[in-house]
From TrEMBL:
InterPro entries: aa-tRNA-synth_I_CS (IPR001412), Glu-Q_tRNA(Asp)_Synthase (IPR022380), Glu/Gln-tRNA-synth (IPR000924), Glu/Gln-tRNA-synth_Ib_cat-dom (IPR020058), GluQ/Sye (IPR049940), Rossmann-like_a/b/a_fold (IPR014729). This is Glutamyl-Q tRNA(Asp) synthetase. It comes from Gordonia phthalatica. Belongs to the class-I aminoacyl-tRNA synthetase family. GluQ subfamily. L-glutamate binds at residues 10-14, 46, 181, 199. The keyword Metal-binding applies. Binds 1 zinc ion per subunit.
Length: 305
């Protein structure tokens, strides 16, 4: 997993379906942030769950059609289970984890620890004895949680400044054995030399946990840029059911890849409405300080069919 550039930005979609215009806009921004600072650009498929066959290739085709390029090869998390397993084994051996048998309901109903951040794991399984663990293992498989030694951590975000957020004993491996997003994102970003993470601002509150974990694993946390989301007219996060939101939907309505890029550029204040642009044009015009800080409200026409 080495990249020709020592440091990189990246885009890391979940191949659960076609990218919609909000995801595409985030990808365009991630590419612009990386290339405008001389970084490499890595593409990673977060396909440990919810992957739909063929969705990865359609996502890559759509990104190529917009004019994005990345350093090969595309990384698939499903190829890296051994790497995650090795990291987990090391953490278990070092005593920085514990087995957790709680159901969602038990967590919600448990009294929270004094001074713990709201919604934080209440600590139920943190100090079980070996005998108690053996008993619980007979009932259900364990998840593995981080034994956090901090309750807050501060990250630097190019758009949001210094952001402090909660850290708790978050899940590293789910009880079905799947390594959790918060673990794999940290392991993979470090392995690929990613020092700049650009993604939707719905993940801003996850960044302190991830950066804390990076530090524990001996990595320097990346710089972040959490970019505004694309919303529907009701102010909710844009979704496929909102109408024509994917490249395929828009193509069906006569908007080609160039048209989609132009719409994205216009929404970012980087082109006039309907002006044809390329990624190279956008690279010349890109200025992070002038990016809109508010979400883009996208009002799609109904999807055909
Ligand atoms: N796979 C995540 C998503 O599609 C993005 C994760 C990240 O960029 O850290 O929302």
């Amino acid at each position: 997993m080495s990249s020709p550039n020592a440091v990189s930005g990246r885009f890391a979609p979940s191949p659960s379906g076609d990218l919609h215009i909000g995801n595409l806009r985030t990808a365009v921004l991630a590419w612009l942030f990386a290339r405008s600072t001389g970084r490499g650009f890595a593409m990673r498929m977060e396909d440990l769950d919810r992957a739909k066959p063929g969705a990865d290739l359609r996502q890559l085709d759509d990104l190529r059609a917009l004019g994005l390029s990345w350093d090969e090869p595309v990384i698939y998390q499903s190829d890296r289970r051994d790497v995650y397993r090795a990291v987990i084994d090391e953490m278990v051996d070092a005593g920085t984890t514990f087995e957790c048998f709680c159901t969602r309901r038990e967590i919600l109903e448990a009294p929270s620890a004094p001074h713990a951040p709201q919604g934080a794991y209440p600590g139920t399984c943190r100090d079980l004895t070996e005998a108690q663990r053996a008993e619980r293992r007979a009932e259900r498989p364990a998840a593995i949680r981080l034994r956090a030694r901090a309750s807050s951590f501060t990250v630097h975000d190019v758009l949001h400044g210094d952001v402090s957020g909660d850290v708790d004993d978050f899940v590293l491996v789910r009880n079905d054995g799947t390594p959790a997003y918060n673990l794999v994102v940290v392991v993979d970003d470090a392995a690929s030399g990613i020092d700049q993470v650009v993604r939707g601002d719905d993940l801003l509150t996850s960044a302190p946990r991830q950066a804390y974990l990076a530090t524990l694993l001996g990595h320097r946390p990346p710089e972040y840029a959490h970019v505004p989301m694309v919303l529907n007219r009701d102010g909710a996060r844009l979704a496929k059911r909102d109408g024509a939101v994917t490249m395929a939907d828009l193509a069906g309505q006569g908007v080609d890849a160039g048209g989609v890029l132009s719409m994205i550029a216009t929404s970012l204040g980087m082109a006039d409405a309907g002006e044809p642009v390329t990624m190279t044009d956008l690279l010349e015009r890109f200025d992070p300080a002038r990016l809109p800080t508010k979400p883009w409200v996208f009002e799609p026409r109904p999807a055909d069919g």
